[in-house]
Amino acid sequence: MAEDVLIKGRCENGAVYDHSGRDSAVPESKFVWWVQAEGVVGFVNAYKLSGDEKYLDAALTCWDYTEKHIINPNGEWFATGDDSTSDNNTQFIVNAWKCPYHNSRAALEIFERHSRM
């Protein structure tokens, strides 16, 4: 699964596509927060299982995208990243559907994996 996402499920900027890859309904300039969080964890898992550094590189580039375009410097992550602007203030932070589950889970999972590496 990680290999398929690595080949068909990522943009050149390192972000992981929502939906089904390059023909996704999500414009390439916007990527969903939870997909990036799970992408980082998934690629780290693939690296741990295989030892292949291409997965670690994918995790790091996905994290780089997330850090630059998704993380709100004031707290909770934005719902989507927008490559075309550094101002994501128009996007919702939390609502009835979006909560900090995926990003919190990713932080805990990566912390646990890192401590074992």
**Which parts are unreliable, with pLDDT below 50 for 5 consecutive residues or more?**
none
Task: Kindly provide the radius of gyration, computed on alpha-carbon positions and rounded to a whole number of angstroms.
Answer: 14 Å
> Order of strands across the widest beta sheet?
1-2
- Count the DSSP helices: 4
Largest β sheet strand count, sense and barrel closure: 2 strands, antiparallel
Task: Identify the overall geometry.
Answer: globular
Average pLDDT works out at 83
What share of the residues lie within helices? Answer: 40-55%
Helix-strand pattern: HEHHEH
Please give the alpha-carbon distance between the first and last residues: 22 Å
Strand residue percentage: 5-15%
Query: Structural class, judged by helices and strands?
Result: mainly alpha
Number of strands: 2
Q: How many structural domains are formed by the residues? A: 1
3D structure, described in words:
The protein has helices at residues 2-8, 33-50, 53-69, 101-116, and strands spanning 30-32, 80-82. With 117 residues, it is mainly α. The chain has one domain. Strands 1-2 form a two-stranded antiparallel ribbon. Helix 2 runs antiparallel to helix 3 and helix 2 runs parallel beside helix 4 (101-116). The model has no long low-confidence stretch (mean pLDDT 83).
Give the arrangement of secondary structure elements.
Elements: H1 2-8, E1 30-32, H2 33-50, H3 53-69, E2 80-82, H4 101-116
Antiparallel strand pairs: 1-2
Helix pairs in contact: 2-3, 2-4
Give a quick summary of the entry.
The chain is built from four helices and two strands. It is mainly alpha-helical and 117 residues long. The chain has one domain (2-18, 26-116).
